[in-house]
Amino acid sequence: MALETLLAIESTCDETAVALIDSSGRVLSECVATQESLHEKFAGVVPEIAARAHLERILPVIDTAMRQSGKAPEDLAAIAVATYPGLPGSLIVGLSAAKALALAWDKPIVGINHIQAHIYACGLDTPESIYPCVGFIVSGGHTSLYRCDDPLGWDYLGGTIDDAAGEAFDKVAVMLGLSFPGGPALSKLACKGDPHAIRFPRPLIDDPKRLDFSFSGLKTAVRYRIAGSSNPDPTAVVLEEKQRADIAAGFEQAVIDCLISKACAALNRTDLKRLCVGGGVAANTKFRQQLTEACRARRIELVIAKPQWCTDNAAMGALAWEKIRRGQYDTLELDVQPGLVRPKR
Ligand code: KG4
Ligand code: ZN
Is residue 278 within 6 Å of ligand 1 at its C-beta? Predict the structure, then answer.
């Protein structure tokens, strides 16, 4: 009898996650250990701290996911693990755990691309295929657009040339004295402000030929707005609450306009009629609302991953079934490919 259960490991950044998934894509169990509290005081993910925390958590997380699924090692068809892109130390912990399980339980190992998995997550709770589509990943580490003809076949269309959108949210949140991760806190503050009170720049938005993003100049514009060009520390400036809220709302709207404009340009260029969005920033309420309206007006089908699968998780490791079906197993020679992968254009 064919074995029908996959154990998937995700440890690319600061979430240690394990899921058990059956061959129809049904998630039998999932366990995610977040590290937000460890990185909060640094207002960003510290790679060494992340790797050490993965090391402490990976075995308990595997145990919990196995127990909750009611499955035994004999039931597993393979061990899947995200091997790229991501932080080197974090990736190595997940891969080492996957190799150890593969060796101890005599199971094949399958390496997966974390970004392809984020896109795949959009289809986890839909019976129909989400392919072909434009895949759009907007997270703390990535802001990129892909033409996805099938789960494993894709072309890079464009992406950020500096900060990722979530990273810009996190950095502007620090300037406004908000907690990490900054996205949720900043958008809460933005609700009290007027998104049109301050018009921040929308870099690259007027060039529809380029499907790229740039958020670093926008971030600097916010800094200057708060503290002027000569003051190096915006957190030392005391602003009125209304001013803070207007800055947050103006910044958020500028990011959303850039994201929606380039997503629409990617749909135009590819002539595809479906947009699949994942990554932590896809949890942003205004972004979801405005993107929904933009897609409705253009008769584009919009699929946004459900919130728990927007952020890093292991359920999206279901992508490994696509490789297993094609016989694309890896060996214990499998290695990590750290960094931000920018596939060739
Ligand atoms: O996908 P994710 O969990 O982790 C990776 O970066 O891989 O995304 C986290 C990012 C953070 O930068 C966080 O500030 C941002 O997503 N984020 C948001 C919101 N929720 C999370 N940004 C804007 N609005 C939100 N509601
Ligand atoms: Zn991610």
Answer: no
- To which residue do tokens 């991953």 refer? 305
Question: CB count, 10 Å around CB of 129?
Answer: 11
* Bridge partners for 21 per DSSP: 6, 27
Place of tokens 């008769």: 299
pLDDT-derived band at 343, boundaries 50, 70, 90:
very low
139 lines ligand 1 (CB under 6 A): yes
Res 1 pLDDT > 90: no
Smallest CA separation from ligand 1 atom 8, residue: 280
- State whether the beta carbon of 170 lies less than 6 angstroms from ligand 1: yes
Which residue's alpha carbon is at the smallest distance from atom 5 of ligand 1?
140
The CATH classification of domain 128-305, taken from the options 3.30.420.40, 3.20.110.20, 3.60.130.10, 2.120.10.30: 3.30.420.40
Q: Tell me the mean pLDDT in the region 272-283.
A: 96
Q: 165 CB under 6 A from ligand 1?
A: no
Asked if residue 344 has pLDDT above 50, the reply is no
